[in-house]
Amino acid sequence: MCTFVSSVHSFLHDTPSLICLNGRIMSAQRTALCLLFLISTGVFSGAQQAQAAPPAILEIYRDPVKPAKMAEYTRLENEAALACARASTWPYLAMQSTSGPQTEVWYMEGFDSYAAVENSSQPFVKNAALGAELNRLMEAKINLVGDARVVFAHYRDDLSSGVGLVQPRARFFAVTMVTVHPGHERDYEEIHRTLRAARQRASATDNRVVYQVVSGMARNIYLIFPSYRSLQGAGNALDPAVDEYASEVDDSIRNRLDEYTRASVAASETWLFSVSPAMSNPAGEWIVDDPEFWRSSPAMQRQSEFRKPPENPPQQRTSPSQH
Cα 142 vs. chain centroid, distance in angstroms? Predict the structure, then answer.
């Protein structure tokens, strides 16, 4: 959503570029040119750009949706995303939980610094019409949601696999929230460092992106964001029969990691999420990666408005004197 219920936003009108969730540096001009190419040519490039690091700072807006209110909520958030797309604001990713005690929608935006966070409210200062429209939508959904929460987390490069947060064609996430016993953070982090090194040696697949919460929740909480192209892939990763360490470590390392886990982990919970094109304002490069999936997004709806042919102007009648 255009985070109109939050005081921070990730598009910086006063800076030349922003950090996308997949770590790519993307200027506003580049996004526009990318979308223009997609629409005008009808040809979608399958070329992938080199993966870069995820954003250093991740803002997550957690919106709990009340039972039986999801359809109306989606409609309003689609309007909000369309308003943002029309105003050429920042990209953000919306994803809806498909497991857990209640339905939550998470909106994720990436920043490269807190200076960017501080300056990110400028679109609303400069665009009163956008602010008024989003305030109207906020009032409309007030009875559809519970108490929202804004969370900030820092990217842990030393614990992650090195892939981008939003992988090409990513449609599902299996987000694991791990609460660590205070004072045992180093034990827990050693698990990820050891596992990362083992998988690199074995050239094994590793799509873990690890963030540590710094505000909005307890600081001893880690968020792990592996992404998947299908629900089948996400489901396979959740299978209890799948060993977390697989065959990349020997028995001695496995025993040591098990000891670290018992000593450090107080609780662990994994939620499945599906990415929602209808409630997202995608970056142009995400659309290039998966054009069919994002075709229903408000950003693409906006581009379709540009493709509508203009109404034929009334033809001027020729006066007899012109013959």
Answer: 23
**Structure tokens, 62:** 């957690």
Q: Hey, where are the domains in the chain?
A: 18-304
CATH (one of 3.20.20.220, 3.30.420.10, 3.40.50.1700, 3.30.70.100) for 18-304: 3.30.70.100
Contacts of 315 (CB under 8 A, 6+ apart): none
How many Cβ atoms are within 10 Å of 129's Cβ, its own excluded? Answer: 10
Residue 272 in tokens = 């499945």
Cβ pair 279, 78 in contact under 8 A: yes
Give which of 73, 99, 80 is closest to 297, Cα–Cα.
80
Question: In this structure, which amino acid lies at residue 214?
Answer: V
Per-residue pLDDT at 53 exceeds 60: yes
Contact assessment for residue 230 and residue 172, using Cβ atoms and an 8 Å cutoff:
yes
- pTM, to two decimals: 0.81
CB 179, CB 189: distance < 8 Å: no
Kindly report the number of other CB atoms within 10 A of residue 299's CB atom: 24
Beta bridge partners of 265: 180
Q: Rounded to the nearest 5 degrees, what angle is found at the Cα of 266, between the Cα atoms of 157 and 110?
A: 30
pLDDT band at 307 (very low <50, low <70, confident <90, very high): low
DSSP state of 271: E
Could you tell me which of 206, 289, 230, 299 has the C-alpha nearest to residue 22?
Answer: 289
- For 117-169, what is each residue's pLDDT tens digit? 887 777 777 889 998 999 999 999 999 999 999 999 999 999 998 899 988 89
Distance CA 213, CA 289 (A): 29
